[in-house]
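Shift notes (night). Ran Bifunctional protein FolD while the centrifuge was going.
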Amino acid sequence: MAANLIDGKAIAATIREEVAAEVSKLKEEGISPKLAVVLVGDDPASVVYANSKKNAGTKLGFEFELFHLPGSTQEEEVIALIEKLNGDETVHGIMVELPLPKHISKERVMKTVSPLKDVDGVHPINRGYILSGEEGLFPATPESCIEVIKRSGLPIAGKHAVIVGRGETVGKPLVFMILKENATVTVCHSRTPDLAYHTRQADILIAAVGKAKMIKADMIKPGAVVVDAGINEIDGGICGDVDFEAAKEVAGWITPVPGGVGSLTTALIYRNVLKGIRLQRQQQ
Ligand SMILES: NC(=O)c1ccc[n+]([C@@H]2O[C@H](COP(=O)([O-])OP(=O)(O)OC[C@H]3O[C@@H](n4cnc5c(N)ncnc54)[C@H](OP(=O)(O)O)[C@@H]3O)[C@@H](O)[C@H]2O)c1
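Came back to this:
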């Protein structure tokens, strides 16, 4: 294997230590950081995510409350709950699990979460802050793509980053987040002709598409940093958007799936709860 493996689990463990230390300090000041998760309906993956967030948060010393509402809950009731959580000083972060049932407007619900408690970084104000460079709460998966590079001691400034995918969750916010790190950025998507031409120019290649193993070894510049945000289910397991086994012979650094980008996301959501507390204090 030519490439250095970027160990997302080890990086996540370091971030968890940093977060747990900050939680201890806050507790000494009499603040018990709390995340509230709103889950509407019984989507099996969302139930699993909510429970794993609870376990992870409890281990880090956070308070956690799950508001699990029936799938028939009306939009107004969800809005009323979020408004109540916005005004609750003991709640520092709010996360709404997606997908919501079809009769509920995702956009309206997202806009209702206070931007200072929006730990998922989905409120339009936080999205705007990504562009303006102001401090805000930013989404965990693109943040994770940047963290795995930085914490491996690899430079971003001055490098050519090529992002494949412009989805709302990963690719699009990442474009502006990595631009803020002074990369030169190219964005590719389903309408990009000759994708391989672009990916071969990348010093840093980030895949955020959702198509199993679509980035082949011959699409990678030798020595490049390859970050795979994709999660695809195949043969009862998961794999990324990069054809890992072949790509690791060409890349200089590479994240595996599982064990890469996805390993950091829960820790970064909790780090956002702490950032939210700092932003909330500045507003007081
Ligand atoms: N690691 C984690 O914790 C985590 C969290 C969230 C998501 N994910 C994963 O990240 C991936 C992206 O998620 P997302 O929500 O951003 O996806 P998305 O909204 O579905 O966006 C996918 C993007 O890929 C582009 N695309 C599709 N086919 C392509 C092709 N053949 N060549 C080039 N680009 C192509 C699409 O282009 P168009 O815009 O032109 O349609 C779109 O911009 C998924 O695998 C998802 O499971 C991981």
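The longest helix spans residues 8-28. The chain has a mean pLDDT of 97.
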